[in-house]
Amino acid sequence: LVTRDELLAAAIALRGPGRARGMRLAEAGDARAASALESVLRGRVIEAGWRGFVPQFVIADDEFFARVDLGHPELRLVLEADSFAYHASREALRRDCRRYVNLAMRGWTLLRFSWEDVVFDEGWVAQALAGVLSGRARRQNPRKWAA
């Protein structure tokens, strides 16, 4: 809804202890985001120190096509920011389930985040990412993680 210059100007105009955070997030702004919730999710990811997530990332082959909210090609990790308003019907549930299974069949791990978890729980996104990647490390090298 705003240009990158407008977003940066708004961040520059901020005063107080949140200014540095606002500047970092404004500088990382990306017009590819499809919603405000998706932008907040990406902001949480950036604040947690994770890089490499691409907004509106396309995963496709001869039999499947998906444009995901955030995709990390090297980690084969998808993050989706889901609100009840767009996922509340039986058909939406069926479509989402089919899509998520298709992603898993192609080797992608999908993490779905609700509006409430993205907006109200600042640490949840970072905790979830760390948990998933830590679990992967334990499975790849179980001796390193043995008690």
What do these coordinates show?
- This protein has 147 residues and is an alpha+beta fold.
- The chain folds into 2 domains: 1-31, no CATH class; 32-145, Endonuclease, Chain A.
- It contains 7 helices and 4 strands, in the order H-H-H-E-E-E-H-E-H-H-H.
- It has helices at 4-13, 19-27, 36-47, 90-105, 115-120, 124-140, 142-145; strands spanning 54-60, 65-72, 77-82, 109-114.
- Strand 3, helix 4 and strand 4 (109-114) form a beta-alpha-beta unit.
- Helix 1 (4-13) runs antiparallel to helix 2 (19-27).
- The longest helix has 17 residues, at 124-140.
- It is globular.
- The protein starts with a helix and ends with a helix.
- The mean pLDDT is 85.
What structural keywords apply?
single chain, 147 residues, alpha+beta, Endonuclease, Chain A, 2 domains, 4-stranded mixed beta sheet, 7 helices, globular
Poorly predicted runs are none
User: What fraction of the residues are assigned to beta strands by DSSP?
Assistant: 15-25%
**Rg on CA atoms, Å:** 17 Å
Q: Sheet with the most strands?
A: 4 strands, mixed
Q: Name the structural class.
A: alpha+beta
CATH homology superfamily of the largest domain: VSR Endonuclease
H/E element string? HHHEEEHEHHH
- Helical percent range? 40-55%
Task: Name the shape in a single word.
Answer: globular
* Level-2 CATH architecture of the largest domain: 3-Layer(aba) Sandwich
Oligomer: single chain
CATH topology of the largest domain: Endonuclease, Chain A
CATH level 1 name of the largest domain = Alpha Beta
Strand order of the largest sheet: 1-2-3-4
Overall strand count: 4
The average pLDDT value, as a whole number, equals 85
Helical run tally? 7
Distance between the termini: 51 Å
- Total domain count: 2
